[in-house]
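Exercise 7. Given the encoded structure of a 133-residue chain, write a plausible sequence.
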């Protein structure tokens, strides 16, 4: 199993490499699913561990976009033409989605780490100063 080292700041190419590796394992049917165990940054004092389903991609829930055609309106049309084909289009979007998903996870982990360091240093400083200060 390869390791993916990254510097002090996560970069998008690193996220792309991780996503590609996971995607290849899944597409080659070497694994049935890919899950991500990570930290979700909430605020300076709160970070939550999370278990995220990465692959297979779960249900895509509709979003309300002002001015966009609703799903009900799309369903009313008998035929929809996609160019390029729906599979090509979704394949292109899915690849980008997976890369961005991993990048977001890396950024959240870094924010959580920096926050924990900051709180730890403040507590160490406060304890070193003692109760008189």
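Solution.
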């Amino acid at each position: 199993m390869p390791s993916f080292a990254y510097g002090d700041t996560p970069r998008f190419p690193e996220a792309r490499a991780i996503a590609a590796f996971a995607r290849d394992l899944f597409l080659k049917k070497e694994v049935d699913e890919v899950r991500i165990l990570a930290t979700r940054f909430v605020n300076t004092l709160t970070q939550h561990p999370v278990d995220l389903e990465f692959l297979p991609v779960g249900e895509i829930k509709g979003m309300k976009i002002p001015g966009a055609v609703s799903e009900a309106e799309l369903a009313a049309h008998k035929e929809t033409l996609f160019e390029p084909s729906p599979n090509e289009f979704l394949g292109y979007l899915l690849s980008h989605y997976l890369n961005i998903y991993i990048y977001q996870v890396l950024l959240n982990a870094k924010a959580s780490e920096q926050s924990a360091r900051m709180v730890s240093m403040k507590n160490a400083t406060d304890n070193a100063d003692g109760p008189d200060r």
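Remark. The first helix runs from residue 12 to 27. Students should compare their own answers with the one above.
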